[in-house]
Structures are given as structure tokens and as C-alpha cells.
Amino acid sequence: MSIESGTTEVSREPGGDQERAGFDEIHILWISEGMSCDGDTVSMTAAGQPSIEDVVLGLIPGLPKVNLYNKVLSPSLGGEDFLAPYRAAARGELTPFILVIEGSIPNQNIIEGDGYWTSFGNDPDTGEPLTLNWWIDRLAPKAWAVVTAGTCAAYGGIHAMAGNPTGSMGLSDYLGRDFRSRGGLPVVNVPGCPIQPENFMETLIWVLHHAAGSAPPPPLDHMLRPQWLFGRTVHEGCDRAAYYEQADFARDYNSPKCQVKVGCWGPVVNCNVPKRGWMAGLGGCPNVGGICIGCTMPGFPDTFMPFMDEPAGGSLSSILIKPYGAFIRRLRGITNIAVNREPKWHHNKPELTSGYAPYWRPSPARPQRGTR
């Protein structure tokens, strides 16, 4: 298997004279051997705007040529054939590349004696399994960019909850918040359990445009999430938000009303799924009757458990909004009745009662133009 390095080209920043290097070819090394279920890879394959096929086939203008290595999507025979680009990158022979990590990172330091939590291939000399941590230690410093796929890789997720024996954590916890890739980027976190397909692909496209020299670095928030995707709450994009404003709450899961009283954390969770949908713009947890359990958040799942219990603060906020909501709901009901009527001039009588009086027609109620 031949491994070719991406060539470098020079691009000029739009509207300025500053030049910086960009790549016309780049590799994506995707490792899903973290503590995970591979659900993020499966979810990513559902993306349509754009799809991973569009990226790999070079159908998106301005992107470098992309060579993707992912075990679920790989056409290789597996084994050493599949591992070849990863081994080449670890030796520094495959550049540039973007490292995508799926799954949380276990703490190998807490294991006494032999053993490992998760591995990816074997050492060719000893035959011993190579841990995920071994690969991250060698690949992350050489990567042009490092991206996490899903909450497990971003913040630890399910495997990092209280009481777990693995000491699992997110990738930025493992590498340190001061980590910077070869491209000068911190870890780019795309949380979700699993990732919303277009959220991940949109972030990857931005990183690829940046690698091509045609875009600035993606703007990230303090938890290293893309700001334009996670800057708003579930509540702000929820189909049921108006019911909250009117203090009209669901009491069971069959109701179309606001689900805060039955366990929804939407008002405080950063996520755009209700607004964006899940596949082809359809779905999204509250849109289809599910409560938000905060799966995109750094404290998931511990902060949001037990699921289906009313969130902390939900009782107080719903009590405070109740008199306002009831008053507003009543006023809107009255106005709704008033505006659900046709105007009185809709009739088939001989007189015109719409108030229509053109200025060129004399009217006893209004003098002609030019007269006083």
C-alpha cells in the first residue's frame, strides 16, 4: 500500500495581502476504539448536507482531496492493510492528516500490572495489543487537526460517569486544555450521543476549508464546541417552546405540550437538534415526543440524572411563569377569537362598505384634491 503525503499550496486571505499555506490533499484517520459503541460513525453515515461520500469523492468545491480511513467505511481487507496508514502517520510518514477520535479515553495509569482497557491493533514486534492511549500519544502531536466525534470523545460521556472503574475522560482532558495541533487548533469537540450527522459534517467541512487555506479557524466556545452550532439552547429551537411561555405543561409523554415537568432539560442544554432535525431535517428529541436529557453537555449523564424526573429548578421556574402564562394565554385566546372572523365588508349587497374611496372620485366625506 503506497502512502503519499499531501502537497502544499499557497493561498491568499480574502480581502488582504497575507498569504498562508493550504493543502490540496489531506488524510482523515478515524479511530473509534475509544470506550464507545461506534454509534457516531453510524450516525455520520446518515449525513446528507453534505454526505461523507460528497467529501471523499471531491464533490464539494474548495476542499482538498480527502483520503478517509474509518473501519466501518474502509474498503480494505482489514488487519495490517487497514492499519498501514495509521502506522505510517505514527512514524511521521503520512502528512498532513486530521485525527478523529470516537469514544472516551480510559486512564491506563490506574491499572496495576498488565492489562488494558481498549486497544487498536498489535505491536508488530511483540504481538501485544497497542492501547488507544498509545496511538493518541503518537498521533495527536503530529495531526494537523484533532476532532472528537460524539460526547464520549469530547467529555467522557457514559463511560466517564460516577463510579466507573476505567477513569474515562474526554480527549481534551487527556491531552490538556492547552493542547494545540500542528495547525494551531485546540481539540475541536462535536458532542452528541450520538452526533447529529450534519453537525459533525459541517464542522469537518469548516476544518477542511481551513486546511485548504480558504477559511479562518472554526470559532469554538469555552468547551471547544463550534459556536454556531451550540450557541443556543434546545428550548430556543423547540417546537414546544411556546407552551412553556404560556405555562401549559405536559403531564405525560402523550401530550404535545412543553415537557419540562416530565423531565426535559431543554431550557438549559446547548443543542440545535430540535431546530435542525435528525435526518433530512426530520426528528429531533422533543419534536418526536422525547425529553432532552442533555447528551451534548460536558456533565452528561451525571448532571442530568435521574432521567425523566423534573429538572432541578423546573418546579420553581414553572411556578413563577404560571400566572404570567395563564394571563397571556387568556388574552391570546380572546384575540384569537377576534381575528378568526371575516371583515364585515365581505358581502354580496349593492353598497360598498369596505371604506374604499379613491382620491379621483368625489366623496361627500372628503373634498376633491385642489379644493379647500
Tell me, what is the CATH class of the largest domain? Alpha Beta
C-alpha end-to-end distance? 95 Å
Instruction: Calculate the mean pLDDT score and round it.
Output: 89
How does CATH name the architecture of the largest domain? Answer: 3-Layer(aba) Sandwich
The percent of residues in helical segments reads 25-40%
The profile of the biggest β sheet is: 5 strands, parallel
Domain unit count: 2
Within CATH, the superfamily of the largest domain carries the name NADH:ubiquinone oxidoreductase-like, 20kDa subunit
The number of distinct β-strands equals 9
> Beta-strand level of the residues, as a percent range?
5-15%
CATH topology of the largest domain: the name is: Rossmann fold
Principal-axis shape equals elongated
SSE series: EEEHHEHEEEHEHHEHHHHH
Query: Rg, please?
Result: 28 Å
Query: Unreliable segments (pLDDT under 50, ≥5 consecutive)?
Result: 1-5, 9-18
